[in-house]
Amino acid sequence: MGVANAVGSFLGRAPGVRITAFDGSSGGNADAPVTVEIRSPRALNYIATAAGSLGLARAYISGDLEVQGDLYTAMTSLTDLDFDMSWPARFRALRELGGLKLLRPPPIPPMEVKLRGRRHSKARDQAAIAHHYDVSNKFYEWILGPSMAYTCAVYPTATSTLEEAQWAKHDLVARKLGLEPGMRLLDVGCGWGGMVIHAAQHYGVRAVGVTLSRRQAEWGQKAIADAGLTELAEIRHLDYRDVREEQFDAISSIGLTEHIGRAQLPGYFGSLYSRLRPGGRLLNHCITRPNNLEPAIRERQFINRYIFPDGELHGVGHLVSQMHDVGFEVRHEENLREHYAMTLNAWSANLDEHWDEAVAEVGQARARTWRLYLVGCQIGFERNNIQLHQVLGVKLHADQSSGMPLRPTWGA
């Protein structure tokens, strides 16, 4: 049967994908737009010893599996397939590929991480953030573009540029929070400072951002100085739980909740609530699951092993309930998942444009990990496997008044 056809038994028959293998065999449509190359026997070990997409990811990151053609097309075709083979079919394929020796675990690619210590302790959270963010500011500049915004953009039109969409996102958050000159804003998980800079520059707000990434804080502080905003804005290398000030007029949390953990959500929202003055607003912007039925943690998946260790996604209904339970009144909510698919597509294009520089900067394995991650997440948002929600809450005054406008003032 040959290696290519045996691997096809594992992967299924994707009409748009051709498979070739190191033994000279091939399978599938010869005219397919995408070819998956099985370059070495080790690729077979990866596929056989890790269920579903994790084995394929390990083989791709290590370079033992290659995709010729558009990776998005290949992943779209492969994710249409059912990886759940019957055991008789699995044994037949294993026997054809070399038998039980394939079940000997191969070396795990060095990009895979398993953290130590108590989950979501400050030390372990610091390690998780450092794994993903303390890579190379230059690498992120190539992917994210001038905005250095590493969260879902908001596209005013289908033809808007990434920079226009990131500006629109920051401005939407500012308008939802009702920012005005002289207000105090806390931005938790501030990244490279995009929201802090936008609020200070365009709304005259005194803004403080906090991040667990030292490299982000250093880059953001320089950007603030370069923009002449040091009197209004600052970024601290600090855990949000260690912010000492209180009585902020507004808090933005853009892409932090995914790192918090289900058990920590009451403390997280309670901490933000306690730092707001009455009438102050919280805008929580984060990736969510499409329902509350699936587990928040999936440790055996590629995304947890390689991209966001300890990441936990929740259904938006659970997040809204948690906000309510600590005292927030939720006033507005919207799903922006299509916008995130468009954002990821733009980041993928940026990475491809700077591919050679990216490989030289961070290495082949990390660059391939990121290529896989960006394309896979784009497909996830397109297919409603994951969503992006903005939830706006307010801390009521003692008389239960909200200070909110009768109708939203931030546009459609």
From TrEMBL:
<protein>
    <submittedName>
        <fullName>Class I SAM-dependent methyltransferase</fullName>
        <ecNumber>2.1.1.-</ecNumber>
    </submittedName>
</protein>
<keyword id="KW-0443">Lipid metabolism</keyword>
<feature type="domain" description="Polyketide synthase-like methyltransferase">
    <location>
        <begin position="139"/>
        <end position="401"/>
    </location>
</feature>
<dbReference type="Pfam" id="PF02353">
    <property type="entry name" value="CMAS"/>
</dbReference>
<keyword id="KW-0808">Transferase</keyword>
<comment type="similarity">
    <text>Belongs to the CFA/CMAS family.</text>
</comment>
<dbReference type="InterPro" id="IPR020803">
    <property type="entry name" value="MeTfrase_dom"/>
</dbReference>
<dbReference type="GO" id="GO:0008168">
    <property type="term" value="F:methyltransferase activity"/>
</dbReference>
<dbReference type="InterPro" id="IPR050723">
    <property type="entry name" value="CFA/CMAS"/>
</dbReference>
<dbReference type="GO" id="GO:0032259">
    <property type="term" value="P:methylation"/>
</dbReference>
<keyword id="KW-0489">Methyltransferase</keyword>
<dbReference type="InterPro" id="IPR003333">
    <property type="entry name" value="CMAS"/>
</dbReference>
<keyword id="KW-0949">S-adenosyl-L-methionine</keyword>
<dbReference type="InterPro" id="IPR029063">
    <property type="entry name" value="SAM-dependent_MTases_sf"/>
</dbReference>
